[in-house]
Amino acid sequence: MSFPLNSLAVQGLASTPVTAEMLVIFVLILLALVLFATERFPIDVTAILIMVLLMVLEPWTQISPREGISGFANPATITVLAMLILSTGINRTGLVQLIGRKMATFAGTDRRKQLAATVGVTGPVSGFINNTPVVAILVPVIADLAHEGKTSPSKLLMPLSFASMLGGTLTLIGTSTNILASDIAAQLGAGSPGLGLHAFGMFEFTKLGVIVFAVGALYLMTIGVRLLPERIPADEDLVEEHALQEYLADVVVPANSALIGQTVGEALGDDLDIDVLQLIRYGERFDEPLARKETHENDTLRLRTNRETLEDVIDAEGLTLSGGPRTEDDLHPEEEEPVLVEVVIPSGSFLVGETLTSSSFRQRYDANVLAFRIRGDVVRDRFEDIRIRVGDTLLVQAPPDSLTRLVENEDFIVAHEFDEVTYRSEKIPFAVGIIAGVVALPALNILPIVVSALAGVVAMIFTGVLKPTELYSSVEWNVIFLLAVVIPLGIALQQTGAAALLGDAVATTSVFLPPIGVLWIFYLATRLLMSVISNNASVVLMIPVAANAAQSIGANAFAFVLAVTFAASMAFMTPVGYQTNLFVYGPGGYTFSDFIRVGAPLQFLLSIVTVLGITFFWGVRV
Fold first, then answer.
1. Spatial contact of 537 and 36, defined as CB atoms under 8 Å apart
2. Under a CB-based contact definition with an 8 Å cutoff, are residues 581 and 161 in contact?
């Protein structure tokens, strides 16, 4: 695979005439943007669609079947796959949880220490473990730290996500974006040696990453913490937080009720928007499963439903309203089982694209869903047929054994720690040693990163850190499919001359802007593109364009590639721009505007710091 570049002088758009091939590529890119932004189909389905179109339209895209599937065999794709598996190995040992608990002990109830510990631990760890699973692991740790320390989780969870992004800029393996950018730079450099591009070293941009992390951490500790709202109360009560009081009710089955002798499932059926949370009989409480339990006289049924449906059922079945729980303690007095937790849906979960009905979630986990937090909005009824997306948060009531199964299942992020979960803590020394080797071997130029990462996977299997059966479940296959399609899309962008056309268009700004100004434009353009599509897709599309523009104006192509790479890791302004933001969106109770208020100043500040840092360390001119 190669990315040839044409040497072009800045002569306006006429230097690269628009061709039919370019127009086809632009249409495919626009189609990808629309499908990714609207989430009309799952990411992996959209990726396969674009891949097929690239190959079917070969006369215009210049992508042969071999090139169309080349993304699957690309070193960047394989490296990302291996790093996801290695991150899972670290997770299985409980190392990050152990660090988190020590962090909680250190912070106590001091809010400054809580924030400092959150940022100070998350950033460095994210430099060596893929930052997405780091945040997934730390969400329950930080949420519990906040509540135990009498702090609103809203004050810590957004900084957790932001710190993970900042930490991802510290090393080559901090994010999949860095790995992909490194591979594209190497391919561009091989095709056009005059560019001076090469694969990134393990710590090649660490000096800039340290400055970016330090500035970002200082912002979060000073300005950011003042801008963050307290959406979630420090003294957590999930019933009050989700305003469920009007949706929970107790009804008594009187002597003359037609429900007597029927099972709970027969009595209320599946066609009504009602969940029976508990059956209370002479002070004894019965929980899941209740569908086959027979209803007796004077039983109290605790329901989750809206007022209109409740009134209809009371009238139809002759039930008597007897109040209802107003707080979490009322719902489960004296910490009775089951318990309430928030469950976040991560990328790759089997629930993504499904509904509660189609996924049989209740039946699988003996769990009731009491509320549904979707992109900041709380839905308390009629959510059975809502299609679930990444980042959606469910308020779940379930017995402890079911919650333990949820915690141990990578399809969910449970925003609360459970002592019942077991880790392979005895394997921590092996896991740490393996990650150290994976980092050291490429850094010392002994092995390429792809070989080092794969060797690390094998080592984790042989040492028992991971079981062979866990390999496939460790991989976020939608990420792999996305990489596999954006790589040939990047090839098409180059081979049709579309990248040169766009590069020349941006290069014309050098007439009235110095090279550092053009560099800043690429940083901002990458950030704008990332608000529509993923960070990896942004890197693939922008790096060839940036390299062309740098060549056109006689600038340092490596500086432009770094600007795009760093910009693609900084998604602070929207909750949907990066997976880690989606993970904290629900548990933090944030609104869309919260990310703009806190993230926009940080985004602008780091754009200046990054561009100046690149100019200082590597220079803008050749």
1. yes
2. yes
Taking residues 175-204, report their average pLDDT.
88
The two tokens of residue 499 are: 């990248």
| 3-class secondary-structure state, position 378 | strand
Cα–Cα distance for residue pair 79/442, rounded to 1 Å: 12
213 band by pLDDT with thresholds 50, 70 and 90:
very high
Distance in angstroms (rounded) separating the CA atoms of residues 367 and 363 = 7
Of 40-49, 164-173, 394-403, 531-540, the range with the highest mean pLDDT is 164-173
Residue 575: what pLDDT?
Answer: 81
371 forms bridges with which residues in the sheet?
A: 395
Place of tokens 């599509």: 533
Name the phi and psi angles at 202, rounded to 5: -55, -40
* CA distance linking residue 67 with residue 309, whole number of Å: 57
C-alpha 257/C-alpha 318 separation (Å) is 6
Q: Give the count of domains, the chain.
A: 1
Strands 339-344 and 413-414: antiparallel
CA 497 to chain centre: 33
Q: Which of 351-365, 431-445, 561-575, 606-620 has the lowest mean pLDDT?
A: 351-365
Summarize pLDDT for 480-507 with one digit per residue, the tens: 888 888 888 888 888 888 877 877 777 7
The residues near 109 (Cβ < 8 Å, ≥ 6 apart) are 149, 150, 151
Separation between Cα atoms, residue 238 and residue 368, nearest integer Å: 14
Q: Tell me the pairing of strands 300-304 and 248-252.
A: antiparallel
> Alpha carbon of 392 to those of 77, 349, 582, 587: distances in Å?
27, 11, 8, 10
- The answer to whether residues 68 and 172 touch, using CB atoms and an 8 Å cutoff, is no
- The secondary structure of 466-528 as a DSSP string is S-GGGTGGGS-HHHHHHHHHHHHHHHHHHHTSHHHHHHHHHHGGGGTS-HHHHHHHHHHHHHH
Q: Is the pLDDT score of 9 beyond 80?
A: no
Instruction: Indicate whether 526 belongs to any domain.
Output: no
Confidence of residue 338 (pLDDT cuts 50, 70, 90): low
CATH of the domain at 265: 3.30.70.1450
Three-state secondary structure string covering 382-426: CCCCCCCCCCCEEEEEECHHHHHHHHHCCCCEECCCCCCCCCCHH
Q: How many CB atoms lie within 10 A of CB 307?
A: 11
In a domain, 124, yes or no: no
> 273: closest CA among 314, 306, 248, 317?
306
Average pLDDT, the chain: 83
The alpha carbon of 486 is separated from its chain's Cα centroid by a whole number of angstroms, namely: 19
Tokens of 503: 């590069």
Is there a domain that residue 298 lies in? yes
Does 160 map to a domain? no
Peptide bond connecting 75 to the previous residue in cis, omega within 30 degrees of 0: no
**Which residue range(s) make up the domain with 242?**
238-326
